[in-house]
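Quick log. Single chain, no ligands specified.
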Amino acid sequence: MKIVNAKIYTCDEAFTVIDNGFVEVENGRITAVGECAPGSKGDIDAQGKSLFPGFIDCHTHLGLTTSGVGFEGEDLNESVDSCTPQLRIIDGINPLDYSFELARKAGVTAAVVSPGSANAVAGQIFAIKTSGKRIDKMSMGEVGIKFSLGENPKMTYNDRDETPVTRMAIAAVIREALLKAKRYSEDIDKAQLDDGDMPEYDIKSEALLPLLDQRIKAHFHCHRADDIFTAIRIANEFSLDYVLVHCTDGYLIADELAQEKCSTVIGPVICDRCKPEMASLSPENAAILSKSGVKVAVCTDHSEVPIEYLPLSVGICRKHGLSFKDAILSVTRNAAEIAGIADRVGSIETGKDADLVLFDGDPFEVMSSPSLVMINGEMIKL
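-> predicted structure:
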């Protein structure tokens, strides 16, 4: 099957735009992309509309907080222990939550789903497709570990009269977990080398081993500039591949973040300054960071902002200086690279998953809706 007569934004490394092109899809994958070839029966005529890679929301709690349910459907914070790296969010996601349908209809074909930010070490992060009934089949795998700095852990554990209640203690909890995991890894290596006894199984340390090996990334929840620098400090101490999530004060320290070659996930954008650490919230954040050379993805932080408003969130960033190219990349290739799933999604290239969205005009205009959404080569009912 082909989509023909489309203006294709491939979002490849060169940001190639094909004014009149086609995409061929077989068995859920893109098998060919090029200048327009003659269509045949069963092909889709795009009629000159713009074809993009499926949009990716790079930080959400999708399916962990079921719309309209309340406590029974709140599964994103296990706020009885400040260090819970062993939690796997796929054990809490409800794929039949109505928000998945709204995501698909908005052109959001993939999402990074994270535990909440109550705990200093919150748990494992997975990337998923937004189409399906069974999370095991929707998952693209574990991509990170969630760490939280600043106000949220402070408020959570101050209410319980337990540590951590200061920023120092939050950082100490994170360091302790990483140091234990590092020693656990060394003990395993030593036992295997000397044919000795393996260390006693430690589920928390075990969960952090892929992070220490840089097979997955550290996602740091951080708003305030000092928390951002604490995230960088810890990441550098342990040689972690890391992502700065929210990064509300990022535009105030953009030069420093550019020197560090940071990756950032900006959002939510459509929100108020609801707590002290968000006092400097600015819709110019994404634009200033991008212009400074910092890699930027835009997120909704669903359900803080409903996931179907991801394109609108990008539109607000565009209104405040983000270029059209950087806007597209913020929910396609940049998001995929930041999430560690660029081998499968984020661009229209041969071999990638056939996740595609078709728009008549600017996808980030408030009146725009996709006329076609495809996930894994399957057409989504709009």
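The first strand starts at residue 2 and ends at 9.
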